[in-house]
Amino acid sequence: MSRLLVVESSARQQGSISRQLTAEFLQRWQASHPADQIIQRDLASTVLPHLDTDLLGGWMKPAAEQTPAEQAALARSNELTEELLAADVLVLAAPMYNFGIPSTLKAWLDHVLRAGVTFKYTETGPQGLLSGKRAIVLTARGGVYAGGPLDHQEPYLRQALAFIGIHDVQFIHAEGLNMGDEFQQRGLATARQAIAEVA
């Protein structure tokens, strides 16, 4: 039995392609892996604050010196980090906003990329501590960007995940969604075929 952590980052609850892809992925995954446990984290319904002085204080100050706000920030970061540590498979659903990831997903990453917890510094540089995990990233994009210079989404997420030790990362892109019906249908069909193969 495996544990999946599913992180949704679309700002839209209705009409979101990335949420539709996630639902299809989970339906297929559960059919193939009925004993697996699925934990879902929706960054639109439970919005995380951006990295701030309270979170930094919670990480860096001794417990006795933390303010109530810093203690709350640390508790929130601990909860998110523990979800990630407990997961065998990480599923990120990420629409492309302005050539990159949603700021809500960046905020989640800022809470879980933690020195001494998910990575550590060594004499030869940083070392990820989450080896053995797998990640699947579902994206929804208005244009066609994969492999091009304007795709700041996939390279960034690959680097961020590798930094914490997750190197087995598979991207499933639904592209061309705002380029007319033909492009949209082709992009969705390509993504759904990949989902069927992965799940």
From TrEMBL:
Pfam families hit by this protein: Flavodoxin_2
The keyword Flavoprotein is assigned to this record: yes
Keyword annotations of the record: Flavoprotein, FMN, NAD, Oxidoreductase
Cofactor: record remark: Binds 1 FMN per subunit.
Binding sites annotated in the UniProt record for FMN: S10, S16, I17, S18, M96, Y97, N98, F99
Organism superkingdom: Bacteria
Catalytic activity: N,N-dimethyl-1,4-phenylenediamine + anthranilate + 2 NAD(+) = 2-(4-dimethylaminophenyl)diazenylbenzoate + 2 NADH + 2 H(+); 2 a quinone + NADH + H(+) = 2 a 1,4-benzosemiquinone + NAD(+)
Flavodoxin-like fold domain: residues covered: 3-197
SUPFAM superfamilies assigned to the protein according to its UniProt record, in alphabetical order: Flavoproteins (SSF52218)
Cofactor or coenzyme needed: FMN
PANTHER family found in the cross-reference section: FMN-DEPENDENT NADH-AZOREDUCTASE 1, FMN-DEPENDENT NADH:QUINONE OXIDOREDUCTASE
Homology family: Belongs to the azoreductase type 1 family.
Function: Quinone reductase that provides resistance to thiol-specific stress caused by electrophilic quinones.
Protein name: FMN dependent NADH:quinone oxidoreductase
Name of the gene this protein is made from: azoR
